[in-house]
Amino acid sequence: MNASARPHPAAPGTRREPRRSMVVCGVLGVAVMAAVDEIVFHQILHWHHFYDRSTSGTGLMSDGLLHTGELLGLVAGFFLYADLCRRRALTPAHARAGFFLGLGIFQLYDGIVDHKLLRLHQVRYGVDVTPYDWSWNLAGLVLLLTGLVLAVRATRGRGSGSDSGRVDSAS
């Protein structure tokens, strides 16, 4: 194994940050799911804009604002993730949980709040939206539940190895 491929030993006294790992990767999960929504449903399929209750120009502007927020989330998330890695404070099991929680939170928020409560847009127009709503929200629920299961396992220490707590200099 060459020197660059070897894992770097943690500095004595280094502390992992499970909560921060989860939050940072949660931000990345929200941003990634926003990007998937924007790219697939807004741009490729042309099924809707973020805000469809006005002119098409307003719809395009709302898509641009969503895209801006998503990019800011990705950039901020990656900088915070890099900081965790640089300080050897990342807890991978909590990071995975946070990522799935972020994916599911965005999907369910969009499906319930944006689509149904605020009626900013629907998944698709000109068709019976019921199967689309069920699919959208069930997919979000599966992602959220996956994140919750991963979070419980990470907190209990299963599947996380030496992911949590103090890191020895010998690890």
Describe the structure using short key phrases:
171 residues; mainly alpha; 65% helix; flat
Notes on the structure:
The protein is built from 4 helices and no strands. By secondary structure, it is mainly alpha-helical. Helix 1 (18-44) runs antiparallel to helix 2 and helix 3 runs antiparallel to helix 4 (130-156). The longest helix has 31 residues, at 56-86. The protein is flat and about 55 Å long. Mean pLDDT is 87; it is low at 3-8 and 159-171.
Q: Give a quick account of the main beta sheet: strands, pairing sense, barrel closure.
A: none
The geometry reads as flat
Mean pLDDT: 87
Low-confidence spans = 3-8, 159-171
Order of helices and strands: HHHH
Helix content: 55-70%
SSE-based structural type: mainly alpha
* Radius of gyration, in angstroms, nearest whole number: 19 Å
Describe the protein's topology.
Blueprint: H1 18-44, H2 56-86, H3 92-117, H4 130-156
